[in-house]
């Protein structure tokens, strides 16, 4: 889009939304609301980069380099995302989100969003 940073450049944040049309806009808005709520509640660790506004993969790599250069210990958790998502028990997820303080309206929206959806691994 004119005036927008290229998503191919390092450091450019672009949340992924896997739907089309007005659903994509609604999902983007709900994703932003959810991120704001969990940041305000302090649920995310200070070192959390994934899904946070203003943080990119390059930010996390630069932080790792700084830590290594200071001869400090680096711990990395790598997840098999394709293997993880199909195994999430959504009812447990909704319950845990509510327990940590995510507003019920957001939890209910997420529940409605997942109705009839399936994970397809390619």
TrEMBL record:
Top-rank taxon, per record:
Eukaryota
Q: What is this protein called?
A: Reverse transcriptase domain-containing protein
- Species name for this entry? Collybiopsis luxurians FD-317 M1
């Amino acid at each position: 889009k004119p005036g927008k940073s290229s998503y191919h450049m390092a450091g450019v944040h672009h949340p992924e939304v896997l739907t089309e049309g007005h659903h994509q806009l609604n999902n983007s808005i709900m994703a932003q609301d959810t991120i704001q709520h969990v940041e305000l509640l302090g649920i995310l660790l200070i070192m959390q980069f994934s899904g946070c506004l203003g943080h990119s993969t390059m930010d996390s790599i630069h932080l790792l380099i700084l830590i290594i250069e200071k001869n400090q210990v680096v711990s990395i958790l790598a997840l098999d995302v394709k293997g993880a998502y199909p195994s999430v028990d959504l009812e447990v997820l909704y319950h845990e989100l509510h327990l940590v303080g995510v507003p019920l309206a957001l939890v209910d929206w997420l529940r409605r969003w997942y109705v009839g959806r399936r994970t397809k691994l390619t």
